[in-house]
């Protein structure tokens, strides 16, 4: 009960490393041991006294002050609090008190319910809380896509204008595709256009997303769900569509490339149902959409800001990626 009187000591800077500690009047406790014990104490207190809102809020304040954010785990203390808030709380201010404890990326890897994700996103943006979806690494939306969580991608695109590719490590993605790639292709074959400089990093990342969608399109849980997500993704992007000529030129000389590229491109065309004529840029109307969404997103006004625009309903649907 003396957490507020604890003094955080600076790590030792000499030859021997000394872990960060908490110093009490009577004894010294290692930081990790103290946090683990405090976490166990809070869990036992909640189990004994039940989940009551004021009790939860006081413990959330203590967790933020002492424990901080950590990688999310199923059935953890954070998981129990989030489920309690989802079932009982509609106050965005209370939800905002919890969000600093939520490690969004690791939470999504635990496959939360879509309704819980929407609950978090809705209250975060209602309270103008930045979940870092627009971080330059853009890992949240991209990781969801490459983990085939396509429903998460569709929901995230309501609150994020588009995925980012600037610092994303394509090599990590390629190395995980040994089981997905066609038999006559290997991961090193996929990298050839990027290694030769025929595709930029961003362009190559876009191509990898299409290729991944093609590889998983017929898996039982995903059948019929991949194409709508890919279509929505490309509605959010300002990039030019891929043409068959561009891809065949990029993979010229790669064994079996013409047949594989042809099959992937046909899937791509069916999915996005767009104009793929070579050399044709995206329409000006589309560039206006991506610019408006980007502005709203950086001001934490997606998707609610679209409804506040004085434009016809058809344009609101267009800005919401519905058309």
From TrEMBL:
Gene3D superfamilies: SOCS box. CDD domains: SOCS_ASB_like (cd03716). SMART domains: SOCS_box. Residues 276-323 form the SOCS box domain. InterPro entries: SOCS_box, SOCS_box-like_dom_sf. GO terms for biological process: intracellular signal transduction. Coiled coil: none annotated. Pfam families: SOCS_box. This is SOCS box domain-containing protein.
């Amino acid at each position: 009960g003396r957490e507020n009187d604890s003094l955080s000591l600076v790590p030792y800077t000499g030859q021997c490393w000394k872990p960060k500690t908490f110093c009490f009047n009577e004894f010294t406790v290692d930081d990790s041991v103290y946090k683990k014990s405090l976490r166990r104490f809070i869990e036992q207190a909640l189990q004994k006294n039940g989940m009551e809102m004021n009790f939860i809020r006081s413990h959330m304040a203590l967790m933020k002050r002492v424990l901080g954010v950590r990688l999310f785990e199923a059935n953890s203390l954070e998981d129990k609090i989030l489920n309690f808030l989802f079932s009982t709380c509609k106050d965005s201010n209370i939800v905002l008190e919890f969000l600093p404890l939520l490690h969004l990326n690791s939470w999504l890897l635990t496959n939360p319910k879509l309704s819980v994700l929407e609950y978090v996103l809705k209250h975060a943006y209602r309270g103008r809380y930045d979940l870092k979806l627009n971080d330059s690494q853009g890992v949240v939306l991209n990781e969801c896509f490459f983990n085939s969580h396509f429903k998460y991608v569709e929901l995230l695109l309501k609150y994020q204008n588009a995925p980012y590719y600037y610092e994303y490590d394509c090599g990590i993605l390629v190395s995980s595709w040994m089981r997905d790639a066609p038999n006559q292709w290997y991961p090193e074959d996929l990298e050839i256009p990027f290694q030769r400089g025929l595709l930029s990093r961003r362009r190559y990342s876009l191509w990898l997303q299409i290729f991944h969608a093609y590889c998983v399109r017929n898996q039982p849980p995903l059948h019929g769900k991949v194409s709508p997500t890919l279509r929505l993704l490309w509605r959010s992007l300002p990039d030019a569509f891929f043409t068959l000529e561009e891809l065949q030129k990029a993979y010229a000389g790669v064994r079996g490339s013409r047949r594989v590229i042809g099959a992937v491109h046909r899937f791509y065309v069916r999915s996005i149902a767009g104009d793929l004529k070579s050399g044709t840029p995206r329409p000006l109307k589309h560039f206006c959409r991506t610019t408006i969404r980007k502005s709203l997103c950086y001001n934490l006004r997606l998707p609610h800001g679209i409804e506040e625009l004085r434009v016809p309903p058809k344009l609101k649907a267009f800005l919401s990626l519905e058309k």
